[in-house]
Amino acid sequence: MSKQARRTRTPKASLGIAPSDWATLGVCLFVLGFAAPIPSQLPLLALVGGALLGAFLDKSPRQGAVPRPFMAAAVFFLLLMALSIFLSDDRVRSLELSAAWVPAGLLFVVLSERLRSPAHIRAVYASFSLVALGLSGALLAGRWFYGANPHAWLSTLGLPVLVVPNDCHFLALLTPLSLILIDRQPRSPLGIMALVSIGLTGLAILAVGSRGAALTLVACLVSTGTLLRPRLGLALGLGALGVIGVGDAALGFPLASKFTHVVDTRISLWIIAWEMFLDAPWMGHGPHTYRTLYTAYFEAIAFPAWVRPDPWGTEVPWAHNLYLELLAERGIIGFFSFLGIVGMGTFYALRVRQEGSRELSILASGTIGVLAGLGLSGVFEASLLRIWLVVLLLAVLGIIGQLAALLRAESVKTKPVTGRARS
User: Fold this and answer.
1) Whose CA is closest to 42, among 53, 54, 34, 50?
2) CA-to-CA distance for 200 and 142, rounded, in angstroms?
């Protein structure tokens, strides 16, 4: 090796951090920070700093690229969201409550473009698992010190992603990522941490009594476990149901009692969302305008006698159904743009799982599990009003884009060499 070559390689060796490591560090710090009770600017600064360092220091060409159809669907979805804000019936509210899309969009770009290896993706999974561990511990501590009514004490925790008890859907949706960490090295410190994270998530869901989160938890574990090994999915499903059942019995069946309500008050919220959609079917009324228009529609609609109005009696911020929310606030175009980007992400994740190496296949299984859980959660709770949903959605889509790029890089390496190249 020449002296000049040694001089050019010394800085990287002395620092011990590759350009893509800086980007990964920024992503991990953002993931750990956005859910913590700290100023929101700090995680964003970490993300921007890591992205800039990774971009300026990375001089090597990339072997694989994110598929163009996937990126086109993502760009179209984000641009359409910006247009829906501009056309909103309540532009100020739509703009203020859509602020989370800015860092989440940057997170998507960094994950899909700046990371370079499966190890980087595992680091992101570990960060989300740590978030679930910390938030679950906080919920359990709140239940222990403040009592059985989380509505009374949840705000005292000061956690930006836990505003109402049903926000523990977020914790359930993180379990597939923890399960991937366990599958590889179950006895390693990282595997043990992920296992504890899943266990505490189940206990936290019991502590706050969220039936939707319990269903989402089971769906996430079963779908991800089945993708890893079919028998594992069945075992995890039965185990999760057993643990939840025993825990609920120990608490006096507060969770089971919620499943006895055949006709839920959410139906009135869904009817309002549907009527909003009929009045603005193409582009909707604008992001997060459900609360703005709630009272007017509630007073104007003649609900059937069997429908019970929502017990809170005030403006409800979201429709408690992601799909009706999309129709009401973003219209048919926004609804299908959302289905398009999620469907495109699922397609490429399934392709990576089928065609990629074992490492990539396992990582892709985690993203599919998250999207499966999100699909169920969207039926009765999830909302784009939640910061955690915006961040998690674009993070998972960014990871899928990166996995698709790594799959392309693998195919380039294994591509047969032509006769001229051999000669």
Assistant:
1) 34
2) 13
Torsion angle of alpha carbons 116, 120, 125, 129, nearest 10°?
A: -160
Query: Are 389 and 383 in contact, with CB atoms under 8 Å apart?
Result: yes
d(CA 116, CA 403): 9
Give me 32's structure tokens: 């750990």
User: What DSSP state is assigned to residue 251?
Assistant: T
DSSP string computed for 256-285: HHHTT-SS-THHHHHHHHHHHHHHSTTT-S
Residue 288's region, left for phi above 0, alpha for psi from -120 to 50, else beta, is: left
Return left, alpha or beta for 18; rule: phi > 0 is left, psi -120 to 50 is alpha, else beta: beta
| Cα 104 from Cα 110, distance rounded (Å) | 10
Q: What is the dihedral of CA 353, 356, 360, 366, to 10 degrees?
A: -10
Asked if 212 contacts 166 with a C-beta cutoff of 8 angstroms, the reply is yes
Please provide residue 124's backbone torsions phi and psi, each rounded to the nearest 5 degrees. Answer: -65, -40
Closest CA to 43 of 93, 89, 122, 107: 107
DSSP 297-342: HHHH----TTPPPPTT-S--SS-S-HHHHHHHHHHHHHHHHHHHHH
CA 19/CA 117 separation, integer angstroms: 12
Under 8 Å between Cβ of 223 and 370:
no
Q: pLDDT tens, position by position, for the chain (423 residues)?
A: 444 444 434 344 335 677 788 999 999 999 999 999 999 899 999 999 998 988 887 766 666 688 999 999 999 999 999 999 999 999 999 999 999 999 999 999 999 998 889 999 999 999 999 999 999 999 999 999 998 888 889 989 999 999 889 999 999 999 999 999 999 888 899 999 999 999 999 999 988 888 889 999 999 999 999 999 888 777 777 777 676 666 655 555 555 555 555 446 788 899 999 999 999 999 999 999 999 999 999 989 988 888 887 766 566 788 999 999 999 999 999 999 999 999 999 999 999 999 999 999 999 999 999 999 999 999 988 999 999 999 999 999 999 999 999 998 887 666 654 444 443
Q: H or E stretch including 163?
A: none
